[in-house]
């Protein structure tokens, strides 16, 4: 008997009928002879509703209390799912993140999982129960306080549980039928991918594809846990995330596609530090301060130093949610570093072309930039990795850019394959 870990997002648990439908799918997995462990998100938009409520009560709620509030959403879901399973004649036990042994660091709001000690889960499995775990949360190893993992944290909870339990597979149930070559809301002709490598999925997730959370893919790659992305609203096969771009192709298989997909992200902002003295250590001082503030930086561009002034500009992108913290942090650094000013821009979007095949196919960059130019899209910043090219464009140009690039690389399907059953894509 194998262990299957499943994850259900908020759109899959939006109301009582949805919860009953999910319970039936969980029971089907149990009837098939599997031990089943399920990680659940909060119902529908309840996390956003709790955040709105907190904002009405306090403009700056303490991080500890905000985590205590937000974890309530997943606890409601886990209990309701367990009740629905019980009504189907099977026993289920629900556990909070801390009860399930999800151990984290002590950073409220975006804690990282350090370890999973699933003793209580194993005991419940041995007793024949289906196990339901509240996602998105854990307990700090040091302070013993309740923590949350940040947006998309239930994906990471599910993969971490799968690794700790040595599960056969981690099934991520969402409101689309798998991983597509682009967001079906923007490109209705997007194709569903049957398989995608960990590296390609990491780049897609980091570039804005919302079907899987970045940290969950990192965790799965590290522990070699296959992820099966499926819709909770259909019985289609979905997409398997597994393997590496460096693995040899299976014997007799066709060469892998050059491009896996086109991703976009509207949740980033750009900060430009103007007039930075071109001296050793100044960039280090800037980015060390941002790191200490727990701010993740994405793209970075430094201009050539002006000969007359010996000053340079440094631009970088970061999550919009961290924008105010970053500006405050840098403003406090101004006197020490001696830069002239700060510029902040939220009206940007990131477009990324991802595919393992671009490592061995010349002309990909030229084709990408030509497609953007022909669509009338101006490029603000460029960043590349071995299997990704990303550009920053005006936010109003995002849809047009995604559509143009998707068509340019022959990714459009002949028939519409994508159905968005819910509303969030998560």
What does this structure look like?
It is a single chain. The chain is of the alpha/beta class and 426 residues long. It has a domain at 3-174: Acetylglutamate kinase-like (Carbamate kinase, 3-Layer(aba) Sandwich), CATH 3.40.1160. It has helices spanning 16-31, 46-57, 63-87, 119-126, 153-164, 198-206, 214-223, 282-292, 323-337, 364-374, 398-408; strands spanning 3-8, 35-40, 92-95, 102-104, 113-116, 130-134, 137-140, 146-148, 169-174, 195-196, 227-231, 239-241, 261-265, 268-277, 300-302, 311-319, 341-345, 348-354, 381-385, 388-394. The protein has an eight-stranded mixed β-sheet with strand order 3-6-2-1-9-11-12-10, sandwiched between helices. A hairpin with a 7-residue loop joins strand 11 (227-231) and strand 12 (239-241). The longest helix is centred in the N-terminal third of the chain and has 25 residues, at 63-87. Substrate binds at residues 47, 74. Its EC number is 2.7.2.4. It is an enzyme of class 2 (transferase).
SSE layout:
Blueprint: E1 3-8, H1 16-31, E2 35-40, H2 46-57, H3 63-87, E3 92-95, E4 102-104, E5 113-116, H4 119-126, E6 130-134, E7 137-140, E8 146-148, H5 153-164, E9 169-174, E10 195-196, H6 198-206, H7 214-223, E11 227-231, E12 239-241, E13 261-265, E14 268-277, H8 282-292, E15 300-302, E16 311-319, H9 323-337, E17 341-345, E18 348-354, H10 364-374, E19 381-385, E20 388-394, H11 398-408
Parallel strand pairs: 1-2, 1-9, 2-6, 3-6, 4-7, 9-11, 10-12
Antiparallel strand pairs: 4-5, 7-8, 11-12, 13-18, 14-16, 14-17, 15-16, 18-20, 19-20
Helix pairs in contact: 1-3, 2-3, 5-7, 6-7, 8-9, 10-11
GO molecular function, one term: aspartate kinase activity
Function: Catalyzes the phosphorylation of the beta-carboxyl group of aspartic acid with ATP to yield 4-phospho-L-aspartate, which is involved in the branched biosynthetic pathway leading to the biosynthesis of amino acids lysine, threonine, isoleucine and methionine.
Binding site for substrate: 47, 74
């Amino acid at each position: 008997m194998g262990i299957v870990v499943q994850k259900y997002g908020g759109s899959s648990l939006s109301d009582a009928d949805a919860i009953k439908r999910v319970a039936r799918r969980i029971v089907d997995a149990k009837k098939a002879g599997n031990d089943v462990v399920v990680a659940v998100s909060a119902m529908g938009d309840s996390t956003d509703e709790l955040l709105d409520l907190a904002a009405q009560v306090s403009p700056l709620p303490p991080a500890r209390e905000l985590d205590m509030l937000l974890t309530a959403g997943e606890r409601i879901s886990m209990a309701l799912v367990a009740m629905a399973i019980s009504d189907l004649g099977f026993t289920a036990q629900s556990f909070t993140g801390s009860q399930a042994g999800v151990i984290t660091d002590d950073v409220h709001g975006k804690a990282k999982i350090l370890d999973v000690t699933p003793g209580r889960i194993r005991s419940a499995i041995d007793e024949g129960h289906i196990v339901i775990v509240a996602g998105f949360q854990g307990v700090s190893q040091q302070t013993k306080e309740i923590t949350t993992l940040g947006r998309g944290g239930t994906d990471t909870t599910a993969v971490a549980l799968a690794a700790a339990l040595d599960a056969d597979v981690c099934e991520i149930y969402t409101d689309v039928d798998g991983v597509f070559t682009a967001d079906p809301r923007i490109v209705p002709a997007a194709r569903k991918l049957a398989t995608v490598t960990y590296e390609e999925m990491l780049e897609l997730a980091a570039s804005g594809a919302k079907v899987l959370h970045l940290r969950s893919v990192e965790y799965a790659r590290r522990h070699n846990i296959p992820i099966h992305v499926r819709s909770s609203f259909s019985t289609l096969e979905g997409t398997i995330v597994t393997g590496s771009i460096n693995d040899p192709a299976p014997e007799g298989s066709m060469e892998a596609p050059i491009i896996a997909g086109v991703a976009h992200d509207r949740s980033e902002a750009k900060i430009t530090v103007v007039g930075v003295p071109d001296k050793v250590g100044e960039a280090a001082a800037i980015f060390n301060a941002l790191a200490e503030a727990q701010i993740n930086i994405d793209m970075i561009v430094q201009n050539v130093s002006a000969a007359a002034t010996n000053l340079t500009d440094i631009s970088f992108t970061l999550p919009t949610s961290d924008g105010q913290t970053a500006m405050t942090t840098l403003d406090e650094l101004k006197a020490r570093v001696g830069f002239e000013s700060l510029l902040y821009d939220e009206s940007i979007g990131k477009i990324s072309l991802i595919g393992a095949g671009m490592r061995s196919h010349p002309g990909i960059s030229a084709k990408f930039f030509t497609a953007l130019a022909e669509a009338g899209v101006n490029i603000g910043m460029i960043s590349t990795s071995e299997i990704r090219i990303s550009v920053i464009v005006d936010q109003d140009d995002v849809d047009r850019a995604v559509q143009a690039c998707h068509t340019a690389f022959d990714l459009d399907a002949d028939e519409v394959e994508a159905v968005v059953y819910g509303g969030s894509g998560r």
